[in-house]
Amino acid sequence: MCKGLAALPHSCLERAKEIKIKLGILLQKPDSAVDLVIPYNEKPEKPAKAQKPSPDEALQWRDSLDKLLQNDYGLASFKSFLKSEFSEENLEFWVACEDYKKIKSPAKMAEKAKQIYEEFIQTEAPKEVNIDHFTKDITMKNLVEPSLSSFDVAQKRIHALMEKDSLPRFVRTEIYQELIK
């Protein structure tokens, strides 16, 4: 920590400027309304590109959201279901976080972190996920210096929400019931 400005003027001031710049990048408002336009897909996504699971495999999804999310067909089916309920933002956030964790470049990581924050976390975001203020604050603090774990707390909260709320509704759908026959 900086004890006094005279003791370490260069390193403290430089560090403060770095933090200010990083926060400024994350908190920038979009330049125009065009940045807020969400593309609308005319045709619904087909969950059929991936191989259809066996009934036994699909049965495991009932008890494990992770198994469903690891299966391409399950993920596509679940996404289609959530879209039909106008609640796909949680899954899209979870997938964005998984993609974020694969980034190696610090510059690309900062760029993707800003994008995820603006799309899902910030108040009034186009696809704002429902997380508590505590989780939002932790996430914002983590984004001062983006790392692979910056979104972990928020992602775990959203995962728990999908497991408790969305998954039970999904397994009662006709589509899922047909898969387990």
UniProtKB/TrEMBL annotation:
Keywords: Cytoplasm, Membrane, Signal transduction inhibitor. GO terms for cellular component: cytosol; membrane. It is found in: Cytoplasm; Membrane. It comes from Propithecus coquereli. The gene is RGS5. PROSITE patterns: RGS (PS50132). Residues 64-180 form the RGS domain. Inhibits signal transduction by increasing the GTPase activity of G protein alpha subunits thereby driving them into their inactive GDP-bound form. Binds to G(i)-alpha and G(o)-alpha, but not to G(s)-alpha. One of its GO terms (molecular function) is GTPase activity. SMART domains: RGS. This is Regulator of G-protein signaling 5. CDD domains: RGS_RGS5. Pfam families: RGS. GO terms for biological process: negative regulation of signal transduction.
